[in-house]
Amino acid sequence: MQFLHQHKRGDIMSHFISTEITHFLSALSTALDFTAEGLTRHHRRATYIAVQIGKHLGLSDRDMLILFCAASVHDIGAITFQDKQPLSQLEMVTPHLHCTEGYHLLKTVPAFASIAEVILHHHDFWQSDTADYALTPTSASASASAPASASLPDTSLPFLGHIIHLADRFEVALVGKPLLIQRNSILEHIDNYFHGALHPDIRSALYEAAKPENFWLDLSSIFLEEATLAALKQGNTVIQFDNEDLRGVARLFGELIDRKSRFTLRHSRLVSASAKRLAELAGWTPSQTMKMEIASLLHDLGKLSIPESILEKPGALTRDEYSIMKQHTYYTYHLLHKIPGFADIAEWAAYHHERVDGSGYPFRIPGAKLCQGSRIVAVADIFSALIEDRPYRPGMPKDRICSILRDSVHSGAIDADLVGLLLENYSDFYEIKNTLS
Ligand SMILES: [Fe+2]
Ligand SMILES: [Fe+2]
Ligand SMILES: [Fe+2]
């Protein structure tokens, strides 16, 4: 079994980006909480509940981390607002579709193999006569000695899936405020829903976790995220992604963003490959170029907040629709900026609709403050949009693309030197389109 690389705090790491998985996944978890009703707190609250149950079960540090990661992205398989809508009903008709979809998506990131397995099971019911699950040994000292072992058995993964099932349905049952006064009715509601098909240890752990008032207060407070991280208690270990893992997760989220609309099926990958080539041509180092790949894969992360009716509209957007569209880079910035070590990535990714004449959106950054990384993503984004085949038109020919790029330079939208580099090396960029399936 492969799980995230684990290092003792204080190790000297050579990674150019050092980010704890908890912060990275918290940010991505928020991105998954956009629905037709706006920004919900479903993943974040379900993660808090799951972690509290795990804590009362006395799970090992390793299982707690897998539980946290899996809960943070448990509904990743429901991509569009339409896919997400049925998940907010307590009684679901076909819950397993998004479990399978999420499993296949997460399997593409090698470091997420265990998390994929948990997500596959996150709507399973427990049956006392057919299944029981062994937990990996609870050990307060596990994290203080060896790193997470690759040979630990996977028998606990479906069990962790059951915890998420309970946390997920519990969260859906939380309606209105204040939550504290609904305590008994919600617990009763959950017992009726599971009707005995819930592992007795998991049920007891929930009842224990739900005793103190702060459990209910945390769930509706602005301090939810820090309460979750405090309950997670990472011991003296810090979990970091290495460069390949980060790129793998960025690719995964690029794929999610692109799947929101059939118009943009390869957009994030195309922008990323084009931005990477531009950075190389501009003389960037390999490590900076890889950082650029990650930023450009995530440049439209905030599009997870945009309704498909706008993303899928074949014609021109109305003024109101365009205003809503403009929020996507605002969210890209704030989702990425809160991740430690991601300050550059957030700017390069989120400023791709800023203009060198200072009249872009959403921050209206003056050109003098627009760094080369942001300018690269802006050029790559426009180039990719022009060369991509769309369901309603084929990709544009070279002459047309060159003239639009030159016009965009003259109007003060994008960087003249970078467009010059792209035009001088046009065949490199044309090839990128052919290499992406
Ligand atoms: Fe789910
Ligand atoms: Fe859910
Ligand atoms: Fe964009």
From TrEMBL:
InterPro entries: HD/PDEase_dom, HD_domain, HD_GYP_dom. Gene3D superfamilies: Hypothetical protein af1432. It comes from Heliophilum fasciatum. PANTHER family: 3'3'-CGAMP-SPECIFIC PHOSPHODIESTERASE 1 (PTHR43155:SF1), CYCLIC DI-GMP PHOSPHODIESTERASE PA4108-RELATED (PTHR43155). Residues 242-437 form the HD-GYP domain. It comes from the Bacteria. This is HD-GYP domain-containing protein (C-di-GMP phosphodiesterase class II).
